[in-house]
Amino acid sequence: GDVKQSIYRFRQASPQLFLEKLEMFAPIQEGVFPAKISLNTNFRSNSEVTGTVNYLFSQIMNKDFGGIAYHDEEKLHSSIGLSLEAGGSELHLLKGSSKSSDRIEMEAAYVAQMIDRMCTEGFAVRDKSGKTRPCTPGDFAILLRSSKGKAEIYAQKLMERGVDAWTESTNGYFKAREVSLMLDFL
C-alpha cells in the first residue's frame, strides 16, 4: 500500500507513517540503500483508466489536500497494454439525497442500470488472449469502500434488472467483517 490508499483508512492505516518514509528515502538507485521503490504499476486497468485517474488526482491532490503532491512518481502505469477500441473512460457523478440510505439505493440502482445496459448493448471487452467480445455479467465486480449494509442492496438492484449477483462474506485482518460483491462468476 501507499499513502494514496491509506488516506482512506484502508485496513486502519496511518497516512503519516507513509508520508514520513516517503520523505525520508530517495528513489532506488543501483547499490544505494535504504531507498524507496514506487509501486505505481497497475496490473488490472488499461491505460485509459490509469490516464483518467492520473489526470484527476494530479488536478486535485497536493500536500494540503491528500497529504502528497501527485506528480510523476505517484502516477499509475498500466502494465496490460490493452486499449479500448472506443477509447477513453467515463466518470459519472450522481446528485441526490444526503441521507446515506437513500444515496446507497440511488447508487446501487444506477450501477445496476449501467451494467444491464452494457450487457444488453454488447459493450466490447477484451479477454486475456486479447480477443474482443461482448461483455457478460461475469465481467463485472463491484468494489465498495465499506460494504456493510450495502452489498445486499447492490445485489438486490442487480437482480431486479435480471442480472444474477451474489455477495461473499469473509473474515479479514483485525477480524473485521467484509462483504465483497461479485457478479455471476459461478
Describe the structure.
The chain is α+β, with helices and mostly antiparallel strands. It is built from five helices and seven strands. Helix 3 links the parallel strand 1 (41-42) and strand 2 (77-78). The relative contact order is 0.10.
Name its key features:
about 30% helix, 7 strands, about 190 residues, alpha+beta, globular, two-stranded parallel ribbon, about 15% strand, disordered C terminus
SSE arrangement:
Layout: H1 3-6, H2 15-24, E1 41-42, H3 47-60, E2 77-78, H4 100-121, E3 124-126, E4 132-134, E5 141-142, H5 151-160, E6 166-171, E7 177-182
Parallel strand pairs: 1-2
Antiparallel strand pairs: 3-4, 5-7, 6-7
Helix pairs in contact: 4-5
Sheet with most strands? 3 strands, antiparallel
| Percent of residues in beta strands | 5-15%
Taking the alpha carbons of the first and last residues, their distance comes to 30 Å
Low-pLDDT residue intervals, each spanning 5 or more residues: 170-186
Share of residues in helices: 25-40%
The overall strand count is: 7
Major sheet: arrangement of strands: 5-7-6
Mean pLDDT: 78
- The H-and-E topology, N to C, reads as HHEHEHEEEHEE
Report the principal-axis shape. Answer: globular
Q: What's this entry about, in short?
A:
The protein has 186 residues and is α+β, with helices and mostly antiparallel strands.
